Amino acid sequence: KGDRKRLSTIASREWIEDNTKVTIPANKRNYRKQKDHVKVMNTMKALKKQLGEEVKEGRPKGSGTAEQTVREWQESHPAGKKADCIRETGLSKPTVYKWWK
User: Fold this and answer.
1) What pLDDT does 4 receive?
2) What is the dihedral of CA 40, 44, 47, 48, to 10 degrees?
3) Rounded to the nearest 10 degrees, what angle do helices 66-76 and 82-89 cross at?
4) Where are the beta strands (DSSP E) in the chain?
5) Cα 76 from chain centroid?
6) Distant-in-sequence, close-in-space partners of 59: CB < 8 Å, separation ≥ 6
């Protein structure tokens, strides 16, 4: 238990700011707990939808995924390697590995 207390003290926002000179702003939840804040925000989102206001959700329509890029590259380079795909497409290694078949 003592280690947990020490870790929580070391990992506190104030401690990090003091020792790294990096400012970390406090959460902007109007003093609500996260659970309550999420409820409020979801309710506001539902109300905005009901009123017909634009609400941003998830990936933009028509943006596609990297899967399509990897598939197209594989079709045009049947003997290609993952490393070549990463270099030529500019996608990250984990992304190419995720969609590679």
Assistant:
1) 58
2) -170
3) 120
4) none
5) 31
6) 65
pLDDT mean values, one per 10 residues, the chain (101 residues): 60 84 86 94 96 89 86 96 97 95 88
Closest CA to 83 of 93, 73, 95, 75: 93
Sign of CA dihedral 91, 92, 95, 101: positive
Say how far apart CA 61 and CA 4 lie, in whole Å.
44
Distances (CA, A) of 99 to 40, 52, 85, 90: 37, 36, 11, 14
Cα–Cα distance, 96 to 73 (Å, whole number): 10
